[in-house]
Design goal:
Number of helices: 13
Distance between the termini: 30 Å
Radius of gyration: 18 Å
Oligomer: single chain
Number of domains: 1
Largest sheet: 8 strands, parallel, barrel
CATH architecture: Alpha-Beta Barrel
Order of helices and strands: HEHHEHEHEHEHEHHEHEHHHEE
CATH topology: TIM Barrel
Helix content: 25-40%
CATH superfamily: Aldolase class I
Shape: globular
CATH class: Alpha Beta
Strand order of the largest sheet: 1-2-3-4-5-6-7-8
């Protein structure tokens, strides 16, 4: 891993904690594989129950089992979910999502209010002794709530750094006449994350454009706009594994992104398959493998056994 430039918002007495949390967050690589457990709120049950979705996905613990078998992934989830299941998955690194909203109702669709304060996260980390390494916050740009959300994000990031935690922003331009998959608009959002002092920013990627290489080249604009804030791309709608891996290779090697955030493309699969996909993603993100090599890893069948305590997950 390259040397880390610690932001000046991290006080001297918290620099070692920040570095330790950075290494846990990125599996010692500088890159991030974020497993999106916050979708339990954001997408309600649409992504967890129905045709084409593994029956295992009905149980919230499926997210924790997947993350525990990921060998480098970090689980991002809202505080209550981590409070209920974290005691059985203590080795996992966690991102505590501070805000959230459901996908129903129109009243505040471009707003997402804070649930927990950073001081609550620090207190929870201390009393639970969990590996809480970062806070997460979703920021919607372009709506009438933009100013309030910018202020909340700035405050949360500063307070997280003061405590030696990292900060991950989800940044989505939304609103009338805004093209959400316009790379120029996305790049602007990445620049806002840099101005807010975020360590990582999760942004959209235009998966539906036909030319993968040209798209990855154009997406460099977003990575450059983020500067020293590292960019990770959303996983998007469920798609074939080969396509996921090819896109990821382009994002990492051409766009120079620093990882991926993946939700439904992972948790809608059975645990055994999700584990193989995680291994393939990790091969690209953490070890510099190409999509072909990663696909071979995915295609290697596993004999997966979960021990009854649910505290240990073994691959045999």
């Amino acid at each position: 891993m390259k040397s880390i430039k610690i932001p000046l918002s991290v006080p001297g007495g918290k620099k070692s904690a920040y570095l330790k949390n950075f290494r846990r967050l990125t599996n010692g690589s500088g890159n991030l594989l974020l497993i999106a457990g916050d979708q339990k709120v954001e997408h309600l049950n649409n992504d967890f129950y129905g045709p084409g979705i593994s029956p295992e996905d009905k149980n919230p613990e499926h997210l924790f089992r997947i993350a525990a078998a990921s060998q480098g992934g970090v689980l991002a989830a809202h505080p209550g979910l981590i409070s209920r299941y974290g005691q059985d998955y203590r080795s996992l690194p966690y991102i505590i999502k501070l805000n959230g909203k459901t996908n129903i109702g129109e009243g505040e669709k471009n707003s997402s209010k804070v649930w927990w304060k950073v001081e609550d996260v620090v207190k929870f980390k201390k009393q639970s002794d969990l590996n809480i390494v970062a806070i997460g916050y979703t920021l919607y740009l372009g709506g009438i709530y933009e100013a309030k959300m910018l202020r909340a994000a700035a405050k949360a990031i500063f307070e997280a750094h003061q405590a030696g935690l990292l900060a991950v922003l989800w940044v989505y331009p939304r609103g009338q006449d805004i093209k959400e998959e316009d790379i120029h608009i996305i790049a602007g959002g990445a620049g806002v994350a840099a101005a807010l002092d975020a360590d990582f920013v999760k942004i959209k990627y235009p998966y539906n454009l036909k030319d993968k290489k040209a798209t990855a080249l154009k997406f460099q604009e977003a990575v450059e706009a983020a500067g020293r804030t590292k960019v990770i791309c959303v996983g998007g709608d469920k798609r074939p594994v080969k396509e996921i891996l090819e896109h990821l290779e382009g994002q990492i090697n051409i766009s120079k992104a620093a990882g991926m955030a993946i939700g439904r493309n992972l948790h809608q699969r059975p645990l055994e398959e999700a584990t193989r996909l995680n291994a393939a993603l990790g091969a690209i993100i953490f070890h510099g493998k190409n999509a072909k090599e990663a696909l071979a890893i995915y295609n290697t069948k596993l004999n997966l056994r979960i021990k009854h305590s649910s505290r240990l997950l073994g691959l045999f």
